[in-house]
Design brief:
globular; TIM Barrel; single chain; 8-stranded parallel β-sheet; alpha/beta; Enolase-like, domain 1; 3-stranded antiparallel β-sheet
Length: about 325
């Protein structure tokens, strides 16, 4: 089994900003695993928030001991981007070597799903203008970040997208006082969900506040071992393969989260269609889908996912699976 890595850079259509910073391109690690004449592919997005870089992820992969299958991989690497790319590549390789679709391997059928579309953090005026351009989409995900302008941002967006469902993502950017100030306005503007309002180390604050709008754990939930600490604090779990460390753990997490009665959101980092394809399996049973990464790119991979506005079609087998 031969493992190869490559860094691919996908320019974005416009600068993308969240509370922690901005980017103009998606830098990803692409993994190819070759065995017996077959090739499997996976993609991951190293995330600085989790102390990952392109170099550190590639080093993890290059220093990996020889493996035969996914079970060995999970014994050698922790949850994270490196394991995700390898795990997804192994799934792809297995499907090709067995001449079976990923649907048969997982017993999950692909169907089209509706994704949210993300508006990056900006001034209220510019976010309102952006909302107007996408007001025909059913779900808009709004990046917020505190600093006193979030109420004005939401009001501007709601004005120009009166019929869209709105979900907001603070990316750990609020204080408790900000949350208490914002929540009545968010109820008034019919916000459907709030993602990760506080830094993950401040999760305990969620136990003692009213939650009239469902709260979703993102940075606070990585894999199935994270679920116990989310009980009583969160209503929804955001599953991202770069956090779980692959589709295998993603499937485990979604099943365990359902047993805990959490609603499910399937999300992504800003990556290409190759990163979204495995996550579409999880999206089949999610309440919220946020797999719009390719819509933010000015150029995607060959055989990309097909988006009809917010509806994502099942992946082409030449892409993955």
């Amino acid at each position: 089994m031969i493992i190869e890595t490559n860094v691919d850079v996908f320019p974005l259509k416009k600068i993308f900003t969240i509370s922690r910073g901005s980017r103009s391109s998606a830098e990803v690690v692409t993994v190819k695993i070759s065995n017996d004449g077959y090739e499997g592919f996976g993609e991951c997005v190293p995330y600085k928030r989790y102390n990952e870089t392109l170099e550190s992820v590639i080093d993890q992969i290059k220093n990996l001991k020889p493996i035969k299958d996914k079970s060995e991989l999970y014994k050698l690497l922790p949850p994270g981007a490196a394991r995700n790319a390898l795990d997804c590549a192994l799934w792809d390789l297995e499907a090709k070597s067995k001449n079976m679709s990923i649907e048969k391997l997982t017993s999950i059928d692909f169907s089209p799903v509706i994704t949210s579309f993300t508006l990056s953090l900006d001034t209220p005026k510019k976010m309102g203008e952006e909302a107007k351009l996408h007001s025909d989409l059913p779900i808009l995900k709004i990046k917020l970040g505190g600093g006193g302008q979030d109420i004005d941002r939401i009001k501007a967006i709601r004005k120009f997208a009166p019929n869209s469902d709105l979900i907001v993502d603070a990316n750990e950017g609020w204080t408790l006082d900000e949350y208490r100030k914002l929540i009545p306005h968010f109820v008034e503007e019919k916000i459907k969900m709030i993602e990760q309002p506080f830094p993950s180390e401040n999760d305990e604050e969620l136990k003692n506040i009213e939650r009239p709008i469902p709260i979703c754990a993102d940075e606070s939930c990585h894999d199935a071992s994270s679920l116990d600490k989310c009980v009583g604090k969160y209503d929804v779990i955001n599953i991202k393969l770069d956090k779980t460390g692959g589709l295998t753990e993603g499937l485990n997490l979604i099943n365990k989260a359902k047993s805990y009665n959490f609603d499910i959101m399937v999300g992504c980092m800003v990556g290409s269609s190759l990163a979204m394809a495995p996550a579409l399996l999880l999206a089949q049973s999610a309440k919220w889908v946020d797999l719009d990464g390719p819509l933010l790119l000015s150029k995607d991979r060959e055989n990309p996912l097909i988006y009809n506005k917010s509806k994502i079609q099942p992946p082409n087998k030449d892409l993955w699976g």
